[in-house]
């Protein structure tokens, strides 16, 4: 379950933000929104199918379901906080203000920041946390 959070939400959102677009609206981004909703549905469906198939006891089922809910809340928090950055990045790329360097992504969260957020005790994503 955790590996899927790195593949789709982090890598997918980063890929989405690096595609230049002159117009960003709900209608132009509907395929990406549908993919996100499908991902969330799969993140609930497959663990529940596994629980029923393996006939686990209620304590194990409760732990897996709670962890699954926590992952979904974390993913949604990450996406909610980075959509405005992604929209601005898409618009800047289409206007030629921003040039993408393959090795460096300005103002985009790194994998380390994403993984730290997934393990920190907060549902609100920030680029840096007080330590």
What does this molecule look like?
- The protein has about 130 residues and is mainly α.
- The protein has one domain (about 1-120).
- The protein contains four helices and no strands.
- Helix 2 runs antiparallel to helix 3.
| Contiguous runs where pLDDT drops below 50 for at least 5 residues | none
Q: Helices and strands: which structural class?
A: mainly alpha
Radius of gyration: 17 Å
Helix tally equals 4
Q: Give the overall pLDDT as a whole number.
A: 88
What is the rounded distance between the termini?
Answer: 27 Å
Number of domains: 1
Helix percentage? 55-70%
Considering the chains and any ligands shown, give keywords for the structure.
131 residues; single chain; globular
Write a brief structural summary.
The chain has helices spanning 2-17, 30-54, 58-95, 111-119.
Any chance you could write out the topology, listing elements then pairs?
Elements: H1 2-17, H2 30-54, H3 58-95, H4 111-119
Helix pairs in contact: 1-3, 2-3
Transmembrane segments: 30-48
Keywords: Membrane, Transmembrane, Transmembrane helix
């Amino acid at each position: 379950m955790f590996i899927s959070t790195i593949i789709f939400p982090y890598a997918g959102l980063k890929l989405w933000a690096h595609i230049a677009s002159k117009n960003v609206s709900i209608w132009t981004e509907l395929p990406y929104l549908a993919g996100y909703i499908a991902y969330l549905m799969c993140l609930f469906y497959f663990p529940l199918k596994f629980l029923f198939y393996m006939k686990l006891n209620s304590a194990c089922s409760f732990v897996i379901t709670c962890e699954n809910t926590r992952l979904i809340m974390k993913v949604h928090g990450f996406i909610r906080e980075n959509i405005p950055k992604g929209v601005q990045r898409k618009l800047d790329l289409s206007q030629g203000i921003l040039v993408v360097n393959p090795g460096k992504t300005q103002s985009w969260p790194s994998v380390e920041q994403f993984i730290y957020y997934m393990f920190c005790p907060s549902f609100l994503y920030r680029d840096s946390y007080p330590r």
